[in-house]
Amino acid sequence: MKTTFVYDSDRKVYMTCYSANLHIYGSEDVEITNSDESGEIEENLYIFLTFIQEYETFFPWSVQRILMSIHSPFVPIDPFKEGVNLEKNHNYVVYIQMGEEHLLESPYQTNCLDYEVLWKNNNKTGPRSQEMCKQWCWWNYFKSYAYHDEGLMMLEQPRKSCFNDRCKEDKLNKIRRDCIRNCRLNCKDKISISLNIKSPEVIVMSHKPLYTAMDIFSYIGGLMGCWLGISVWTCTGIAETTFWTFLRFLKQYAKRFRHSPPTRNQLLFRRKHHDTVVF
């Protein structure tokens, strides 16, 4: 178990926090537990047993309580905001399902950063998550004023803190903002939700590029094929319309020619006396 201290802003004091497999500081590797791949055996990662003693109450007028929170080993949390209050005379069993989400680096919108690789390249020093990176930016900002650890959420040792407004107005604000802006998303964002593994199956969700070079050529080729198809279809339609129009004209002309009366040599005659017809 590792002991850290979290500042309680309501009571203005530091509270003790006991953590297992917490690695927001130092160069230690995370603890690894081998699980049963068949999933037939339910494995217990941790078992905690605690008793609340009345004489340990620091504030006699308040009710004793224990807060518990399950989170990433590399992400500091505020148990007063994210923790769950444990009731007396209760037995808590928590089951977890593990998962990984693989994000894409620049130029994609996620623009993630592999903090584990960065941590190893820096001789196993520095932040190991985006949340810790932002807190380090705040810590470096306030460190320029006095010897205190303002900006860090979970401390290894409680020290002097600075909570007045004059410390937060300085020309170093720009440096702090630039530092926080460089704290990008973690490429491997592991999720742990409980303490007992019922199945060793790991759900992995990977983000793949939407378009590649071959997809672009296929897209352009498809557009050209569609354009040629539309052009051929249009030319064929025009030719077909012209042909049927000409054929209709020929039919109407032939029909008119058949129904017209035949031309004959008109007989010229005149009547003379004695009713004699002279041709």
Automatic annotation (TrEMBL):
<keyword id="KW-0472">Membrane</keyword>
<keyword id="KW-1133">Transmembrane helix</keyword>
<comment type="similarity">
    <text>Belongs to the amiloride-sensitive sodium channel (TC 1.A.6) family.</text>
</comment>
<dbReference type="InterPro" id="IPR001873">
    <property type="entry name" value="ENaC"/>
</dbReference>
<keyword id="KW-0739">Sodium transport</keyword>
<keyword id="KW-0407">Ion channel</keyword>
<keyword id="KW-0915">Sodium</keyword>
<keyword id="KW-0894">Sodium channel</keyword>
<dbReference type="GO" id="GO:0016020">
    <property type="term" value="C:membrane"/>
</dbReference>
<dbReference type="GO" id="GO:0005272">
    <property type="term" value="F:sodium channel activity"/>
</dbReference>
<keyword id="KW-0813">Transport</keyword>
<keyword id="KW-0812">Transmembrane</keyword>
<protein>
    <submittedName>
        <fullName>Uncharacterized protein</fullName>
    </submittedName>
</protein>
<keyword id="KW-0406">Ion transport</keyword>
<dbReference type="Pfam" id="PF00858">
    <property type="entry name" value="ASC"/>
</dbReference>
